[in-house]
Structures are given as C-alpha cells and as structure tokens.
Amino acid sequence: MTDTKTTRQHAALLPEVPEPLRARSEAGHAVAWLESVTIPTYEPDEPADHPMYLDNRVYQGSSGRVYPMPFVEGVSRTPVPRVWQAVHIDNAYVRLMVLPELGGRIHSGYDKTTGYDFFYRNSVIKPALVGLDGPWVSGGVEFNWPQHHRPATYFPTEFTIDLDDDGSATVWCGDHDPFARMHGTHGIRLHADRSVVEILARLHNRTSEEQTFLWWANAAVRVHDEYQSFFPQDVRYVADHARRAITAFPRADRPYYGVDYQERAKNLPGADRIDFYRNIPVPTSYMIVDTDEAFFGGYDHAAGAGVVHWADRRISPGKKQWTWGNSPFGHAWDRHLTDEDGPYVELMAGVYTDNQPDFSWLQPGEVKRFSQFWYPIPGIGVAHQATADAAVHVDVDSSTGSTRVDAAFAVTRPTDALLRARDTTGTVYSERAERMLPGDVVRIDAKLPAGVSASSIRMELVENGAVVLQWKLADADDEEPWSATEPPRPEDIDSVDELYLTGLHLVQYRHPTRSPMPYWTEALRRDPGDARVHLALAKREYHRGRYQSAREHAEAAVARLTVRNENLRNTEAYYVLGLILARMGDDDGALKRFGKAGWDRTWAVAAGFESACILTRRGESEQALADLEPLIAHGAEDPRATALRIVLLRRLGRNADAARTLEQVRTESRVDDLLDYLADGIRPVDGGLLVDLALDLAAFGETDAALAVLDEATMSPIVPSGSVRPLAHYLRAQLLEQLGLTGEAASERRRGQQADGRWCFPVGLSAHDALTAAVAADPSDGVARLLLGMLLYDNGRRGEAVEQWDAAIAAGLDDAVLYRNAGLAAYNVVEDDDLAWRHYERARELAPRDARLLLEQDLLAEKLGHSSESRLERLELNLDLVASRDDLAVRYAVLLTEADRADESLRWLESRQFQPWEGGEGLVLAAWDAARSALGMPQGEPPLSLGEKRPEAVAPVAVHDDGQTDYFATSLPENLLFHRRGSL
Q1: By the 8 A CB rule, do 240 and 303 touch?
Q2: What are the residue boundaries of the DUF5107 domain, all occurrences included (predicted)?
Q3: Which pLDDT belongs to residue 519?
C-alpha cells in the first residue's frame, strides 16, 4: 500500500520558493531556482585504470561496449551525506526537483493537488551496477540517449534556467554523448497554468558522419499489489527486447520470460494479468507492438492517483514497462537501489523507437526536436483515453439490457467543459463542468436512452465547441504480430539486396555478437561492384581511420552509380568521398565532391557545411559565407552552420549582423558550448567538452583560439568520466605543426609524454590523426603509441594496435596499462599464451596494488589451464586485494571449495556484503551452493549478505552446446575480455 504519510513527509522536505521569486509565483507563474540539497549517497568506486574492451557484452539487447568511458565496478556499502546541485521547478499544481549532476534526471515529481509523488522519489542516491558504465540510480525520470541506459547517466550535465515571459519555467540540461560526441539537450518545463511536465528534447548530430540513436524517457513509479500500469485499450500484444518473444496483454496467454502465466492463473484467478506488478515474479520487460493512441501510464489504486504520458504518436510509438519482479529475486535488487522506499516499475516512453534495441538515424548536422508530456492524474482510475489536456476513465455496463455509463474526467489546466455522451444520432447525455481544475475529478454516471449501444458511444470533453478529448471502445485487430528471427547465414540468403540489408541491420541496431562483414563480403563475392555495399564499407573504413581503403570503396561505389548517369538521385557517395579526401589532405578533391553532393537536397546542407569549413580554413571568407547563407536560409537547423556564419561575419567586419545572429540562435540552442564561447568567451570545465570546443574552432580555422582552449584542456580535471590531458597536448602539437612551428610542436609532444594519462582513452578521427602524426614525427614516443593503440584496438584494428603497443614497449615505456593492453592483445589477437602471461606478470610488477589486474591475471590463468592450486596460492598472497572486489572474492571462494576447503569458502562468502552486476547474477549464489554441497549441506535460503536471491525462472541460454552464441543472448559475462575471434 502507498504510505501517504511518507509521501507528505517527502513534500515537507522540499525547499520554499525563495523570496526573489515569490512575487512571480504568487502571480500564478512557474518558477525555477538552483538550491542544493543534501542526500545520503553511496558513492561509486573509482573506475579501473584500464580501458575496457567489452566486445561481447550484451546490454539492453544491443552492444554493451563502454570504451572510451572508464569503467566503474563497485559502489560503497556505506552512505555519506552529499550536497547535490538541484534545480527546483514549481507552479500551482506541481513541484519538480532536477539533478543536473546525475545526467539531468528528474529526481522527484510531486502533485500538490493530491499530495502524491507521481514519480518515484528515492530518499537516497544508491547506485547499483546496472548502467552501461556501471553505476545507475532508480527513481524519478532518466532521459536515455543515444542508447539505453544513458551512457552519461551518472555524469554531470551543463545546465541553465529560463523564466519566460509566458509564465513558464524551464531547466535545460545538455551534454555530449561519450561515444560519437553528439549533443543532447533536454528541457524540463512547467507552464504557468498546467499540471503537465513538458520535456523538450533537442538531439544534434554535431558530427560529419551519420549516427544511430534511440530515445527513451524512463519514469519510475512506486508500486505495490494495487499498482496497475495501463496501455491504450487497443493494445492486444506486447513484446520483449528485440521482439524475440511476444505475449497477449493484459492477460498473458503463453509463457513469457520463463513464467507460465496461464498455469499460475489456474490456482490464482487473475494471476495472468501482467499489468499488475503483483503478478510478475521475474525481471520482465514488455513493449507495445502497435497502437493508434498516444498515451499510457500507471495508476495507484490504493492512493487514488497516478501518472499519464502523452506524446505525438507519429514519432513516439514506444511504450514500455519494466520491473525487477515481485519476488525475493526482485526485492533483492530493490534493496541494492534504495534503503527504505521499496519496489518500483519503469514506465518508459520512446520517441523514434518502439523497442530496445530499435535505433533510428541522425544525418550529419541534423537536429531532431520533440516534446513529451507527463502529468499526474487524480482518482479517476486508469486512463482509457488521454491527451495532453485531459484524461478519462470510462466504464460501460449493458448487462441489464440498457446501457449505463460511468465516466471520470480529469484535466491538466483550468477548463470550462461540456461533458457529453454521443452516438451516431447525436448527443444522448451532457452536463456542464464549470471551472474544472487539475486535481479535480468530475464524473458522469448516467443511464443512456434505449437503443444506445456500448459500441456506438463516444464520451467527450468539449471546450468552447472544440473536442479536447474523445473516448470510444477500442476496435483492435487481434491478429498476432510478428516476432523477430535470426537472419540466415550469408550463404543461405538468396539476394545481394538482402545481404546488404542484413548487414545494415546489424550496424544500425549495434548487434553485440554479429558482424555485418560476412554478409557484405558475400554480397561482393556475388556482385563485386555493388554500390550500396561499397558505400557501407567506405563509411565503416572511414570511421576506423582507414582512409585509403575507405577511398577505394567510395570510388567503387561512385563508379557503379555513374555507369549510366553522373547526376545521381542520391549523392551520399560523393559526400562520403569528400569526407575521406578532406581527411587525407586533398581539399581541392574534397571541394569537388562536396559540390557534386550538393546537387541533391538530401546532402546539400551537410556537404555545403563541409565545403564552407574548408573555404574558411583557407581564408576564403566571402565565398564561404556566400555558400553558407543559402543553406541557412532554406531551413538548415544545424547550429554548427550558424556558428560558422557568426565567425565569418566577424571576419568580414559585419559585427552587428553577427551579434543579431548570435542573439537569435542562443534563444533556440540553450546549452551550447560553441555559441557560449562565441558570445562571451565562456569555456566549459570538462576536458572532453573543451576538446570538442577546440576541434570546432579548428574546423573553422580559428587556430589561435583552438590552441588556447586546448591549453586549458591540458589542465582539465581528471574525473571518472575520463581525462584528455595527454591527448590535448598531442592535438595542440598537430595544430602547431600545421602552422609550421615545428619546434613548439615537438615541445608540446614532450609535454604530452609527461602528462598524467590516467583515464585517457582516446576516441574519434581527430584523436586518431593527431596521434598518428605524433608517432610519425617521433617514432620513439611510447605514450603516443600507447594511446593510438588504445584507439585502434577499440576500432577493430587489432593487429595495428599490437604493433603500436609492441613498439611502445620497445621504446622503453614501462607502464602497467601498456603491458596489460599488450597482454590482452597477445592472448586475443596474437594467440601467444606465453607472451600474454609475461605481459600480465610485468603489468602486475608495475602496479602490484591494482586489484583489477589481479582479477584479469586470474581470468587469463584459467583460460591458459593453470592449476587451481597455483591460482589459489596467488590469490592468498594478495588477500586484501581479493577482498576489495566481489568478482575476485567469488573466484577465491570457488578455488577454496575446489581445494577441499569448503568450510573456509562458506565462511568467506558469508562474511561480506555482495553487489551483483545486472546480467551477471547467480555467480555468488552458485559459489555459495557449491560450498554447502561440498559440506553435505542441503540447498538453503541465501542470506541477505549475498545480495541476490534465487530466480523463479531460468534465463534463456546464451551459448549453445555447439559453442555458438545465441543471436538473442541477453548476457555473456564469461567472455567479456578474453576471447579469440580476430579483428572485428
């Protein structure tokens, strides 16, 4: 049951509106302000010092690779009071609290009209090892992009607050995603006279390559036996991740996630209703597969309140529920995420996506804008229809021969409404509801005239003659939808077309265990000139920094496409070839291809921007501006283009025009480092953002400014989200070399060699080019080779990475990270077991207190078939390190049991508090069971200290008996680092 007293206590903890804002608040406007809060916090451990190449990791149905992010593998067991930046947003109906330092998430949403927390408010910040990068917190609303869970979910965002003249208040949060460095901004807005929380998203592909993305707003709600999630009434089926399984909804009609709901319902009527949390015993996702409606939500029958989400159905089809499950297994996870606030479910809303994984595309420079709306509802029951303005619950009873309707309406703004029932003959019942307010429930309970059938009824809320809300009985198709299947092997696919599309699917959906290459290789075997495949390979090779190979594929694509016609319907091949030539230093060739690409409107803006950048760097400012102006005038929304226009206007002395442009664009792009810099010279603090700003400036030919920003980046904080200090030196060196300042460039490279390289994991083509130039300038630079090898290894250029690391060792760089990387590659790529072991031995000599290295050495020892005795002896010599990591502690316990020391194993396991990793559950429990079994003890109930309970269903197989990884595998913890399959 919901604890109303606790809910109201939560409200009492919210700070009062500060004095300077009270007049605005009392005038009925929304207000927002920054006021820190102290929350008990379980701090994450520091990340590992080593880059994590988790090629086989499956995460949310797609790739769980984390490079270039440092990887966090533990969380403190003891909370400390921590002061968090918090933005509070308030109006007459709703109070929100936003935490910019936690990915810009909404921490709480409180309905002032009912005293109900319509978003789950967690009293503590208690991360569990659930996130892509490790720590993840439950509660509130998390905004997931460009994949799930948000890669930067535990990283700080930049933010700003707007108090607008229309009475609204908005906090804008923005960051660059760690992978492609795209920019995501979300605004959290309250209006003056509405109970709606509007989310304004702005997703910008600030790169020159097309990128994939998804967007899910992940709202948590507190649950119990009487909490019901609801979808539109036309939803008949729901699907698992990747649509690998489906079931009927709301009554599951088949086994789902290993649970036979029909069998359960035989003993407990209603137990097949998966819209109630109480009936779902295992961790379970379900996503709608089709609806004509735009809303969904959840309702707390005990509290008489709930929440609705609404968004434009044309772009927002995604509607999902997730739960850990109402069972000891799920409750164990609840305890890892909160101290006292109990279970929750996630109500997730997807835009440009309806499943996970389900990625869409962003073209170079493209901006996508959209809004989502969340709002609390009072005691109407589950919503049967909802818009952003109102919601209604309708019960129709025709059992007595006549039709009776009971409808409960709620609104999100003050409304003078006409509530009516209509059928094909017109209005059959109506009544007025003067001045409905958010929080009010207005009911119609009426017997309708004879002859009015339930199927013909339309319940409506009308305002000023306009229908604001209309409900009717759903007329849904009960035909069972499709579910996904594994693609055939390449040789079993009939057409080159399907081979190409299969490879594209694997790329787009970031499949964790399948490569597109076998499909595209087979396609070219059958048709060596296929343009689509060559273009796909050109983009793949370009992204990996293999420019010559990329050029060959792009030229092959152009050759096939222009066999009959040089004026192409789609000029992407010219655009891609232009990018490649520009990276190779052939600006004239690039300009020629970009010019041809501009003949096609689809690529005109992206190609025109790239051309303008080249012209700007060459000092041809008038021509660059002349090329740029038409692109902006014809609707190009790319903020990079507007920023370049400002730079060019200033160069040409048109400062007033530049100022007007800047003022206009800053109202549209609220969190933008480049525009902030051009306006006020403001620079971000984060090193990665500083590098991004510098690269933007360098692309515009603002070399001196770029050098200054990079100099600041060389002194930026070394934080768990990563460091750029050495890389910033090498980027400066490259710019200095281009200016002909060879001596200064060499000095800068020496500074890079001496910089603190902790958590510096380079990514991107600019880093690739700078490090490649550094190695060419000084082949003895072991640091540059170490960093370049990291980037190459992540890019699938494994053999080249080995060459760089071997050369760094030969140059005398004695570094634990280097030897660890070389050892990993020696096993995975070179397949030299002895060399791998020697490298790990040296890494541990250099960093004997590194527990991660000890873990990996033991993993390698197991792979190499070392005896259990030798492994146990090594761990016992480092027992304090073993005790510092759960994974090492479990391995130690297993070895103790194998050594006939099960009593010690059991005592060891029961003496510590474990934290499971989502997807890796069961390892601790298996070790505990094995120790008890060795002692002749029966299977028992695991103690709470193990951190997990027995699941009620068996997870799908990940690896089949023949050694093949299942196409829909959900977890592969046993082969995350050490595996042999060659280059990607």
Answers
A1: no
A2: 65-377
A3: 98
What pLDDT shows up at residue 8?
45
The neighbouring-strand residues paired with 251 are 273
Count other Cβ atoms within 10 Å, centred on residue 961.
Answer: 6
Residue 398 binned pLDDT confidence (cut-offs 50, 70, 90): confident
Q: Write the CATH number of the domain with boundaries 393-471.
A: 2.60.40.10
List own/partner pairs for 870-874 with CB under 8 A and 24 or more apart. Answer: 871/895, 872/896, 872/898, 872/899
159: tokens are: 């933010």
By the 8 A CB rule, do 621 and 591 touch?
no
Whether the predicted pLDDT of 684 surpasses 80: yes
Q: Which residue has 């002895």 as its token pair?
A: 834
The token duo for 297 is 């939500």
- Residue 4 scores a pLDDT above 60: no
In whole angstroms, what is the distance from residue 104 CA to residue 1 CA? 30
The pLDDT tens digits of the residues spanning 235-270 come to 999 999 999 999 999 999 999 999 999 999 999 999
- Partnered with residue 344 across adjacent β-strands are 222
Pick the CATH number of 822-975 from 3.40.50.300, 1.25.40.10, 1.10.10.10, 3.30.230.10: 1.25.40.10
What mean pLDDT is reported for the chain?
95
Helix (H), strand (E) at residue 99: strand 94-99
- SS3 of 395-432: EEECCCCCCEEEEEEEECCCEEEEEEEEECCEEEEEEE
Would you state the structure tokens that stand for residue 49, as one six-digit string? Answer: 């010092």
Distance between CA 891 and CA 906 in Å, rounded? 13
Query: Nearest to residue 687, comparing CAs of 711, 704, 705, 669?
Result: 711
Q: Are 37 and 97 in contact (CB under 8 A)?
A: yes
DSSP state of 144: E
Cβ neighbours, 10 Å, residue 821:
25
